[in-house]
């Protein structure tokens, strides 16, 4: 029960993100017969050709991908992803297909932004919208590559299929614009591939290092001496990801409110680095 209560905020946020994604589908992309990419794009093509319900197609096509991700990404990730997939399918039944804008460029851009924002927040809180998100997350975890860029690459074949179906280059190009916007939003919000290095000057280095190792994040302990006061203090150096930086700030503030922290952008990390989703 404690575990369920702990996950309720994440579940609630993922359901809210599913509503945002569904709105992007039903109000902006589907009325213009565009694609969002990934499994949802495949569902859209099949729906356009056969007239079948795109929401339920989206759910059915995601089932085998979710089963694959069960072992590779863990039960929690897949279960939260399943919540997202079910919620998107249900919201697509509740939100009618109705063009919010008659301008294809606006529909492509803002549809991509809505889908990207919903997907990125779902990824940030431990889930995904299924489909290519899971495939991209598996590759990103092993290769340390941006999820959004991977999604853009994986979606090329889906857009090509739309071009063949529609026999209209405009629909494919608008869809590519939408997918590009989605990828950019995901990479702006979900940033586990971007590293930062934190230099922490503190008098409670051992306690802070012990907490960092529980995250788990490694740390290097250095002895330093203040140029102005000549006082000896400890310096901890640790490498973390952009989206874990808020947790690091909180941890340092709770452990040593007087600590001095300098955070710098890290271009690359050579050697062992524990990659988290």
What structural keywords apply?
277 residues, alpha+beta, Alpha-Beta Plaits, four-stranded antiparallel β-sheet, 11 helices
* Largest sheet: spatial strand order: 2-3-1-4
The overall average pLDDT, rounded, is: 79
Helix content: 55-70%
Oligomer: single chain
Content-based structural category: alpha+beta
Number of strands: 4
CA-to-CA gap between the ends? 25 Å
Q: Rg to the nearest angstrom?
A: 22 Å
What portion of residues belong to β-strands? 5-15%
Which parts are unreliable, with pLDDT below 50 for 5 consecutive residues or more? none
The biggest sheet, with number of strands, parallel, antiparallel or mixed sense and barrel status, is: 4 strands, antiparallel
Number of helices: 11
Shape: elongated
Q: How many domain units?
A: 2
- Helix-strand sequence: HHHHHHHHHEHEEHE
Q: How would you explain this protein's 3D organization?
A:
With 277 residues, this protein is an alpha+beta fold. It contains 11 helices and 4 strands. It folds into 2 domains: 2-189, no CATH class; 195-266, Alpha-Beta Plaits. A hairpin with a 6-residue loop joins strand 2 (220-225) and strand 3. The mean pLDDT is 79.
């Amino acid at each position: 029960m404690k575990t369920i209560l702990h996950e309720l905020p994440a579940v609630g946020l993922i359901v809210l993100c599913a509503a945002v994604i569904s709105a992007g589908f039903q109000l902006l992309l589907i009325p213009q017969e565009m694609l969002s990419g990934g499994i949802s794009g495949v569902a859209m093509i099949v729906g356009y050709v056969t007239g079948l319900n795109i929401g339920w197609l989206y759910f059915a096509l995601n089932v085998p991908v979710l089963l694959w991700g069960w072992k590779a990404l863990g039960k929690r990730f897949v279960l939260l992803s399943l919540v997202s997939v079910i919620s998107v399918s249900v919201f697509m039944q509740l939100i009618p297909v109705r063009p919010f804008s008659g301008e294809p460029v606006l529909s492509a851009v803002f549809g991509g932004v809505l889908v990207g924002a919903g997907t990125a927040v779902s990824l940030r809180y431990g889930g995904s919208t299924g489909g290519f998100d899971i495939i991209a997350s598996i590759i990103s975890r092993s290769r340390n590559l941006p999820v959004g860029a991977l999604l853009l690459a994986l979606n090329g074949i889906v857009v090509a299929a739309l071009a063949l179906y529609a026999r209209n280059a405009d629909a494919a190009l608008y869809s590519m614009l939408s997918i590009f916007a989605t990828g950019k939003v995901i990479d702006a919000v979900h940033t586990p591939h971007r590293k930062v290095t934190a230099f922490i000057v503190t008098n409670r280095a051992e306690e802070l290092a012990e907490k960092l190792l529980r995250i788990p994040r490694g740390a290097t302990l250095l002895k330093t001496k203040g140029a102005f006061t000549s006082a000896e203090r400890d310096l901890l150096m640790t490498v973390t990801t952009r989206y874990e930086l808020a947790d690091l700030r909180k941890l340092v503030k709770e452990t040593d409110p007087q600590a001095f922290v300098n955070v710098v952008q890290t271009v690359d990390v050579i050697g062992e680095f524990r990659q988290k989703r």
